[in-house]
Amino acid sequence: MPAALSLVLAVGLTACGSDDAEPSGGTQTSDTSGSTDTDGDSAAVTVTREGDAFTPNGERVELGVDQTLVLTITADEAGELHVHSTPEQEIAYDAGTSEHEITIDRPGVVEVESHEPDVIVLQLEVR
Q1: C or N: which end of the chain has fewer Cβ atoms within 10 Å?
Q2: What is the pTM (predicted TM-score) of this model?
Q3: Residues 6+ away with beta carbon under 8 Å from 15
Q4: What is the per-residue pLDDT across 73-102, written as a single tens digit (0 to 9) for each?
């Protein structure tokens, strides 16, 4: 696995769970269209959907408790992402590019997934 992709995974994105992770400074970018930026107050991830394929695809991203995650979604068709936090969050998006913010208020691993198609897009490791 390329080192850049490993950094994205180490940043901490997971779904339907709870683990701890500290936000990191700097920018990590994977070989794919997905990228992750963290600056302490917020983190940013770019998600690309082309047909039934998502980038990133299951990578982990580290996020601090109550840190804002800004998701920029570029999609060739409308859809919905499910954030398996407590309470669960849903992010509806249209075709084109849109931006969405979420926060997680407790430590753990939280999966961000699409149900149609059934794909885990991100795993948020919240510390």
Answers
A1: N
A2: 0.69
A3: 83, 84, 109, 110, 111, 112, 113, 120, 122, 123, 124
A4: 999 999 999 999 999 999 999 999 999 999
Rounded to a whole number of angstroms, the distance between the first and last alpha carbons of the chain is: 25
**Separation CA 60–CA 54 (nearest Å):** 14
CATH number of 32's domain: 2.60.40
Domain span at 39: 3-126
**Domain count within the chain:** 1
Q: Tell me: the pLDDT tens digits for 95-115?
A: 999 999 999 999 999 999 999
